[in-house]
Write a structure and sequence with these properties.
This is Amidohydrolase-related domain-containing protein. This protein is of the alpha/beta class and 219 residues long. The chain contains eight helices and five strands, in the order αβαβαβαβαβααα. The two termini are 24 Å apart.
């Protein structure tokens, strides 16, 4: 990634890095910032790690202390059921926090198309806490569904955009490096349709919100 940023240049490329707070140096951080790095990532979900609240708080504070002087953000990849622990932590970090993958909810493996009733995202443990955090203004959510009609994902996206249209971002996983063959066109088109009722909303979702989060100067 750093090599790619060096080729793209800091006006065209942005990156988010994983660091060990115990070993990272100020010189490395300065070098990465010059290349276009604008965030740190805390990934518990991919490695199946579960933290108690005190450990999670300490981890995020240490990362925030590294990110804050450079006005970087933090991406947090944790399961949705851990989000309630973040409610009292995130507002005190003093930086922008991005919750990856809509909070990584555990969605049903049975297609919702087999059931005519609409999907209520508030039945997911942790979802109401995620909405509360978004409304504080310190959080940006940004995929996953087993339903062919994407009704669960759409219901969540609808709530996010309603709660905080200036905080939701699109496609930070582009180009889906571990999901070869995924057709994102239907969901992208649905997002455009959802934004059609409010002038400028699509521009925020697809561009402006991410530019602001990653410190990109708009043109």
């Amino acid at each position: 990634m750093l090599a790619a940023l060096a080729k793209l240049g800091p006006t065209r490329g942005r990156g988010v890095v994983v660091v060990d707070p115990n070993t990272i140096t100020q010189e490395e951080l300065d070098e990465w910032h010059a290349l276009g790095v604008r965030g740190l990532r805390v990934n518990l979900q991919s490695v199946g790690k579960v933290m108690e609240r005190n450990e999670l708080e300490a981890t995020l504070i240490r990362h925030a202390d590294i990110a804050r002087p450079r006005n970087w953000m933090i991406e947090v990849y944790v399961p949705l059921k851990m989000i309630p622990m973040l409610e009292s932590i995130v507002p005190r970090l003093g930086i922008t926090v991005c919750i990856d993958h809509f909070g990584s909810p555990e969605l049903s493996s049975i297609s919702l198309c087999e059931n005519d009733s609409p999907f209520d995202p508030y039945t997911l443990p942790g979802f109401s806490s995620l909405i509360s955090l978004i409304r504080t203004g310190s959080l940006c959510p940004y995929r996953l569904t087993k339903d062919a009609g994407m009704r669960d994902l759409k219901a969540m996206a609808r709530e996010f955009l309603s709660a905080a249209p200036d905080r939701v971002i699109y496609a930070t996983d582009w180009p889906h490096t571990r999901f070869t063959g995924v057709d994102i066109s239907p969901f992208t088109e649905w997002c455009l349709d959802l934004c059609a009722h409010e002038p400028g909303l699509a521009e925020k979702l697809f561009r402006r919100n991410t530019e602001r989060m990653l410190g990109v100067e708009s043109t």
